[in-house]
Design brief:
about 425 residues, alpha/beta, 7-stranded parallel β-sheet, 6-stranded parallel β-sheet, about 15% strand, globular
């Protein structure tokens, strides 16, 4: 059985989308005669914890742990809420940032390059170099963000000449929050130099979208493979649909994902349509940015909002299956066209219609359209959005609101792992 060393930061009990991709790859790699050896931090600072995910860890893997120092551990002494929010990607509106938040963002972007886990690079290289040599491992995979893990791969590649796959779950310098880090010219150049070096040293780059592939092709001639995220078969009893006409957003609802056209449409519908007002409920599950909550209040939707906060991954899937309509919202920016939210694929197999809002030419719009799982809107299509919500509501009243998906099997975690295994072998 071929051995492969996988270097990742997020691992159960970490919650959130960052853990799912490699948790599932590792689950299925042994089916393709590949032994996964997973290297993770021993004492990480996870912004979200989900103990339920520990049950999903494969008993066929080998797990290696090594201590990590993270500045977030020190910064949380001053403000646990601010550091946890920033480390999980929820960056406050620049006009509403406190002095401490501005300091934390500047420090994060300019002193810790590429990110605050950079102190794990040197001890990891020392530890893994010895392990790789003693156990005859010739293939490693690094997964980022945090992109500092790619620097571990870079050093191991340079010193041991191992075969190295660099997996980018998200882009590096073109990701939406990168511009919010208050980077100096020096820091900006340093980020780009490191990105270029990683992309031109790794043997193969793995990305999750075709737009990221196109961006990276402008930087490197190394082979780039697209392996999207996907869905797994979850053993969950059939769920009874919500009695209310629930529009559910599941996952982090970042402040920049603030669709005015959605709030305007819902506000008008509850005002104009008494029946809609009686049945409608907005359901929020996961971390929600303050600007989102402020917008909901501004449009007088507080009484219709059920904010459940963070729930376990298992509970989230149950809500996906019983909500009437699922909301998928991405930041309205050219920089986010490449982002394919991981929850999209679980949404697609929930058998509930998706309403998606994002920038023009988004990669995930194509997936939703081709699988017939929902309707995509840009941020300037308010009337079309309002009409669709009303149409869905009328079908809900008739108990005929459903979806007829096609072509989903290509996105199953097992099929995607087979694609990964073909690369590794």
């Amino acid at each position: 059985m071929k051995k492969v060393l996988i270097i990742t930061y997020y691992w159960p009990p970490a919650g959130g989308p960052g853990v799912q991709r490699w948790l599932k790859f590792v689950k299925y790699l042994p089916d393709y005669n590949i032994q996964p050896i997973v290297y993770i931090p021993e004492n990480p600072t996870y912004p979200i914890v989900d103990e339920e995910l520990v049950k999903d860890v494969s008993d066929k893997e080998i797990v290696l742990k090594n201590s990590i120092f993270e500045p977030y551990q020190l910064a949380s002494v001053f403000s646990k809420k601010s550091t946890r929010g920033i480390s999980s990607g929820i960056i406050p509106n620049p006009k509403k940032q406190s002095f401490l938040q501005k300091v934390l963002l500047w420090t994060r972007g300019n002193l810790f390059i590429p990110d605050a886990r950079v102190f794990w690079v040197k001890p990891s290289v020392k530890y893994l170099k010895k392990y790789i040599q003693e156990n005859n491992i010739d293939t490693i995979i690094t997964s980022g963000p945090p992109h500092s893990l790619h620097l571990i791969g870079l050093k191991l590649k340079e010193e041991l000449k191992v075969k190295w796959f660099a997996d980018f779950r998200d882009p590096w310098t073109t990701i939406g929050y990168h511009s919010a880090l208050k980077l100096s010219a020096y820091a900006e150049k340093k980020h780009k130099d490191l990105e270029r070096k990683v992309l031109n040293t790794a043997d193969t780059i793995i990305v999750t979208s075709k737009t990221t592939k196109a961006e990276f092709e402008a930087i490197t001639s190394k082979p780039i493979e697209v392996i999207t995220n996907g869905y797994d078969v979850e053993k969950i009893d059939k769920q009874i649909l919500d009695e209310k006409f629930t529009l559910a957003h599941i996952g982090s609802f970042l402040s920049d994902r603030n669709p005015q056209i959605l709030w305007e449409s819902l506000s008008e519908l509850v005002t104009e349509n008494e029946l809609f007002a009686q049945h409608f409920q907005l359901k929020l599950i996961g971390k929600v940015g303050q600007e989102i909550l402020d917008a909901i209040s501004k449009f007088s939707l507080d009484n219709y909002c059920n904010n459940l906060g963070y729930v376990s991954h298992l509970e989230a899937i149950k809500h996906q299956k019983k909500s009437q309509v699922l909301l998928l919202i991405e930041i309205d920016s050219p920089e986010t066209k490449s982002i394919i939210p991981g929850k999209l694929f679980e949404y697609m197999v929930s058998e509930r219609p998706i309403i998606a809002i994002g920038p023009k030419d988004s990669d995930f719009a194509e997936i939703i359209t081709s699988t017939n799982t929902g309707i995509f809107f840009t941020y300037d299509e308010k009337e079309r959005l309002k009409n669709l919500i009303l149409s869905h509501f009328n079908l809900y009243l008739e108990q005929k609101l459903q979806v007829h998906a096609v072509g989903l099997q290509q996105y199953s975690r097992k099929n995607l792992t087979e694609k990964l295994a073909d690369l590794i072998r």
